[in-house]
Amino acid sequence: MTNSYDVIVIGAGPAGYVGAIRCAQLGMRVAVIDEYRRKDGEPSLGGTCLNVGCIPSKALLDSSEHYHRVQSQLGQHGIKVDGVSLDVPQMIKRKDKVVADLTGGIKQLFKANDIEWLQGHGKLLADRQVAFKPHKGKEKTLSADNIILATGSRPIEIGAAPLTGDRIVSSTGAQEFQEVPKRLGVIGAGVIGLEMGSVWNRLGSKVVLLEAQDSFLTPVDQQVAREAKKLFAKQGLEIRQGCRVTETRDGKNISVHYEDKDGKQHMQVDRLVVSVGRRPNTDGLASEDADLLTDERGFVHVNDYCETNIPGVYAVGDVVRGPMLAHKGSEEGVMVAERMAGHAGHVNYDTIPWVIYTDPEIAWVGRTEAQLKAAGIPHRSGTFGFGATGRARAMDQSDGMVKIIAHAETDRILGVHMVGPQTSELIAEATLAMEYEASAEDLARTIHAHPTLSEAVHEAALAVDKRAIHKAN
């Protein structure tokens, strides 16, 4: 290990490790400082996303979906299965292997790109220096021409429901249950709460989600959100809105006390997941004399190109403004690396796709109808249900819809919103169309293979002009 680098990255999540790799590709000498350690104490690359976030949750969602289909959906296909049993520890073991394989892959990428992995805590000092405290050994001072801050985020904790480690848990703990809780409470019906609730609901839990807001999935177009809520209710997910949790008592059972429009309420559960959002992980990130500018919530202040108020110091991912999405952070890491090298890197924040990996999946890109109305932008929209597509019917996954919103005068696509099968994949076409500033007519005149789920996107584009073929307009 040397003491001087072209770039030091603090944090090895999707924003940090991707930025580091791009810097190395552009010929820079790079070191990455990361303090994350697995539950067994061993260091691991990939940050929250790969270790306890995006990847393990998707592995569990996939496993639980297989179990649910075997239990309740294969019979109508003429497939009879007897003696189905559930091995939760094996499910968790598989999830851990998926995580280990992917984090190990990042380690190999670091090796291939000659990136130095420094295991421990990094703190920004003045004059583009970094204090590095390894997990084992003495603290050292390092320096670099450029520094990227990419320390990610952590779950928000609330005083009314302090975490206990095994019974009242964050989303991380919800990925480690060794048995299916009979009754599971989830505080927060956002992206993470819905995904974790879906996992255990499919496996047999009675799941109740307590949401503080009166509206469901506020960032989602409300026509799509209403459809999604209706479908979740059919699955047995109980979503109670306008609920403010005031106290939890952990005894033989967990008693959750909350208030809603009807007054004081309470319920008893066997496990409780606290999923009320995330906050930037910036405590202890910079010394006072570094003069790093942050806001009252702990986000690092940056400009459109992720430059902080300190020359040569950048911040990307969950520690800066914008959605806390892995792919957003990764693209910011690439942008910063390319701008360091004198290239014209940029991120189009208007075309960042979002996905909620429930079943059906929810995906969207661009603005909602409510946002366009508030901004006074003239628009029109077209919708099309998956139930009218042959492929969705053949798959027995015909719930949901696609909605395309276009400018009323120019026909430029302003937003695309979906709930249905594999919308996490279908949203890519919409994102690309918006990146190219396509019109609804462009999508409508693009030939889509038959039979495919993507035909719903095609028909929704036709519906903007009230000429969908397989729908009475």
Automatic annotation (TrEMBL):
Q: Where does FAD bind?
A: 58, 122, 151-153, 318, 324-327
Question: What GO annotations for molecular function exist for this entry?
Answer: dihydrolipoyl dehydrogenase (NADH) activity; flavin adenine dinucleotide binding
* NCBIfam families according to UniProt: lipoamide_DH
Gene Ontology CC entries for this record: cytoplasm
GO terms in the biological process aspect are: 2-oxoglutarate metabolic process
Q: What else is known?
A: The active site is a redox-active disulfide bond.
Q: Active site located where?
A: 450
In the record's cofactor note, how is the cofactor described as bound? Answer: Binds 1 FAD per subunit.
Q: Which PROSITE patterns match?
A: PYRIDINE_REDOX_1
Entry's family note: Belongs to the class-I pyridine nucleotide-disulfide oxidoreductase family.
Q: Name one Pfam family in it.
A: Pyr_redox_dim
Give the E.C. number(s). Answer: 1.8.1.4
Q: Tell me what reaction this enzyme catalyses.
A: N(6)-[(R)-dihydrolipoyl]-L-lysyl-[protein] + NAD(+) = N(6)-[(R)-lipoyl]-L-lysyl-[protein] + NADH + H(+)
* Protein name in the entry: Dihydrolipoyl dehydrogenase
Residues annotated as binding NAD(+) are: 188-195, 211, 277
Annotated FAD/NAD(P)-binding domain ranges read 5-333
Provide the Pyridine nucleotide-disulphide oxidoreductase dimerisation domain boundaries.
352-461
Organism for this UniProt entry: Spiribacter aquaticus
Keyword Methyltransferase: yes or no?
no
Does Oxidoreductase appear among the keywords?
Answer: yes
* SUPFAM superfamilies to which the protein is assigned, alphabetical: FAD/NAD(P)-binding domain, FAD/NAD-linked reductases, dimerisation (C-terminal) domain
What taxonomic ancestry is recorded? Bacteria, Pseudomonadati, Pseudomonadota, Gammaproteobacteria, Chromatiales
Subcellular location, record wording? Cytoplasm
Q: Out of the domains of life, which is the source?
A: Bacteria
Cofactor(s) the protein requires to work: FAD
* Keywords attached to this entry: Cytoplasm, Disulfide bond, FAD, Flavoprotein, NAD, Nucleotide-binding, Oxidoreductase, Redox-active center
Using the chain's own numbering, where are the disulfide bonds? Answer: 49-54
